[in-house]
Design brief:
The chain is of the alpha+beta class. The chain has a domain of about 110 residues: 2-Layer Sandwich (Alpha-Beta Plaits), CATH 3.30.70. It is built from five helices and five strands; from the N terminus they run ααβαββαββα. The protein has a three-stranded antiparallel beta sheet with strand order 2-3-5. It has a two-stranded antiparallel sheet with strand order 1-4. The structure holds iron/sulfur cluster (2 copies). One iron/sulfur cluster binds next to helix 4.
């Protein structure tokens, strides 16, 4: 009898603890957004590690010198950098985001400061294959987008 009573008291106490946590979250500011009606605040995204991207130099070209340091540092074998013939810049820069654990070993090992984490939080694909990203093509597209957004000088 006493044992059953004690079990009931413990059950009610446990329920009250659970409900206090639930009610606490119910009235605290929301941490999620209703995408696509809302988007994540750009200030919050500054610390977000999205897929890697190449950092452009002044001319908008890649700073990568194809040294392979990032490829060797990557524990997940998700990078492929192929040097162009007769030059130091890469002709191929493929990054498999589906394998990446976002450890930053590649970013930290790069002597040229050529890669960083992007803030792309809305990346969606239907297949793993689509997560093999061509970062040179991405850099080119970003450069075109920037040039396209430059206002034309009035004569
Ligand atoms: S963040 Fe880590 S796992 Fe991802 S590509 Fe760089 S080294 Fe590899
Ligand atoms: S470590 Fe840097 S410079 Fe070397 S291949 Fe990787 S991105 Fe290019």
């Amino acid at each position: 009898m006493l044992r059953a009573l004690w079990d009931n008291v413990k059950g009610i106490y446990s329920l009250l603890v659970g409900m206090s946590i639930t009610w606490g979250f119910l009235f605290s500011p929301r941490k999620t957004v209703h995408y696509p009606r809302q988007v994540v605040d750009s200030e919050i995204l500054k610390s977000y590690r999205g897929p890697l991207e190449l950092i452009p130099d002044q001319a908008g070209a890649t700073k990568c010198i194809s040294c392979q340091m990032c490829v060797r540092a990557c524990p997940d074998n998700c990078l492929k950098v192929v040097k162009s013939e007769g030059g130091k810049n890469p002709k191929t820069w493929i990054y498999d985001f589906s394998l990446c654990c976002l450890c930053a070993a590649c970013v930290e090992s790069c002597p040229a400061g050529a890669i960083r984490f992007s803030h792309k939080v809305y990346l969606v694909t239907k297949t793993r294959e689509e997560l093999k990203l061509d970062l040179l093509a991405d850099l080119k597209a970003r450069k075109s987008a920037i040039l396209g957004n430059v206002p034309k000088k009035s004569s």
